[in-house]
Amino acid sequence: MTSVHDVVDLGDLPFRTDVEIAVLLVSPRHRYEGRPADGALPADGPELRGTVELRAGLGIVGDRYFAARAHVHASVTVIGLEGLEAVGAELGVVVDPAATRRNVYLRGVDVEALRGEPFSLTNTTAGSDTVRFRGYRPANPCAWMDHQVAPGAFRAMRGRGGVRCDPESDGVLALGPAVLRTARPVPVP
Q1: Handedness of CA 166, 47, 67, 164 (dihedral sign)
Q2: Is-contact 106 99, C-beta < 8 A?
Q3: Cα(150)–Cα(145) distance, rounded to whole angstroms?
Q4: pTM (whole model) above 0.85
Q5: Rounded to an integer, what distance in angstroms lies between the CA atom of residue 168 and that of residue 120?
Q6: CA 43, CA 67: separation in Å to the nearest integer?
Q7: Residue 41 has pLDDT above 60, yes or no
Q8: Which of 9-23, 28-42, 114-128, 143-157 has the lowest mean pLDDT?
Q9: How far apart are CA 76 and CA 162, in angstroms?
């Protein structure tokens, strides 16, 4: 296992934000294939998890993007629940976060500010792992959002679709209170 301390000293991430890891999703297969109007493929087992195991440079163990070369710098997607709630308010619906097919859903921080930034997440329970990430590009919504979330969601999610990331250390994340560390202050919704 690669420890976060083997990767870099966390001293370069001096800013702390208390967040909640509210949803964790791991999907062993792609469910949004073909035409959106045909609907999603059925789940291949439970996708919502209480914990996820991450591996440096590979992603979430058991997820469809784990070790997928086509998803270099995009093996994990982090999204903010406040952004999804704003989308729901605009569209007049309650958004099911799992319908967006992201992996880590955070409450308490503007996730979009993590693009291009190093950051880490640590559950607040004693003995928890610290998982280091690098945010890369936005997780732009696709046409599936209009069919799986709500009509108009494709457009409404622009700029709120989350951030594609790579884990830079191994570790386990769990649902519940966590600490986000960043190199620069990030906005809190």
Answers
A1: negative
A2: no
A3: 7
A4: yes
A5: 9
A6: 21
A7: yes
A8: 28-42
A9: 10
User: Position of tokens 């996730």?
Assistant: 111
Is the separation of the CB atoms in 135 and 165 below 8 Å? Answer: yes
Contact 53, 167 (CB under 8 A): no
The edge-to-edge listing of strands for the beta sheet with 59-60 is 59-60, 51-55, 171-174
Q: What is the 3-state secondary structure (H, E, C) of the chain?
A: CCCHHHHCCHHHCCEEEEEEEEEEECCCCCCCCCCHHHCCCCCCCCCECCEEEEECCCEECCCCCCCCHHHCCCCEEEEEHHHHHHHHHHHCCCCCHHHHCCCEEEECCCHHHHCCCEEEEEECCCCCCEEEEEEEEECCCCCHHHHHCCCCHHHHCCCCCCEEEEECCCEEEECEEEEEEECCCCCCC
- CA dist 114 and 109 (Å) reads 10
